[in-house]
Amino acid sequence: MDYNILVDAELDRVEWVAVQQASGSAETVPRSFKELLAASNEDEVKRAYWKLENHVVVQGRLYEAAIHLVPAICAALVDPGRTRLTRTWLMELLFQICNGYHVPSSNSTVNPPDIAKRCKDAARNALWILYGDMVRQEIKIVENLIALLELDPLRLSLIRKRIPNYKAPDWSTNQSR
User: Fold this and answer.
1) Which residues pair with 53 in a beta bridge?
2) What is the rounded CA–CA span in Å between residue 74 and residue 129?
3) Angle, to 10 degrees, between the axis of helix 64-77 and the axis of helix 115-123?
């Protein structure tokens, strides 16, 4: 099955040319995101990642494009065939967005006051996908991401206790596959 149809549906719901990112229109965001998903090695992944990081989120400051990118990231994480390298960078981007904050602006569409909450709420739609990655114990940042999003800390604690020999590997974006 081609899970990219889910990503395409999320990206197509947005009129990106009218959405704002750090340097203006977010019209290049869908192309950059698809480049990240299509990347086959670490250099390609990093190049694509940095076309998103420092555009939708800059040093923790969120821009309108982040709100619309979160559902596409969640849709991309549904694909069990995504490489660990790509999943790691997707989770890193999601973490950066969900750990971001609102920066007041004279233009409330560029940085809506509830932007951080809206990003986290959208990311919570992927919580069980993230828990699945936590059970596989391949990507360390997933636990940090879950802790950031989880509204019920007891659930995280109970799941952590139920994973046999739980010890997630040290997180690194240098991991492949």
Assistant:
1) 57
2) 8
3) 10
Alpha-carbon span 124 to 146, nearest angstrom: 9
Any residues with CB less than 8 A from the CB of 55 and at least 6 apart, and which?
21, 22, 23, 26, 28, 29, 32, 63, 65
DSSP state of 2: -
pLDDT tens for each residue of 147-157? 999 999 899 98
pLDDT tens track for 75-134: 999 999 999 999 999 999 999 999 999 876 655 555 677 999 999 999 999 999 999 999
> Across 101-172, where does the E strand assignment appear?
none
H or E segment to which residue 21 belongs: strand 20-21
Query: Residue 28: what are its φ and ψ, rounded to 5°?
Result: -90, -10
For β-strands 24-25 and 57-58, DSSP reports them as unpaired
Joined together, the tokens standing for residue 119 give 């990003």
- Report H helices in the chain: 4-12, 29-38, 42-50, 64-77, 84-98, 115-123, 127-136, 141-149, 153-162
Among all chains, which residue has been given the structure tokens 């999003």? 149
CA distance linking residue 149 with residue 138, whole number of Å:
19
Compute the distance between CA of residue 21 and CA of residue 62 in angstroms, rounded to an integer: 8
Residue 76: both structure tokens together = 């991309």
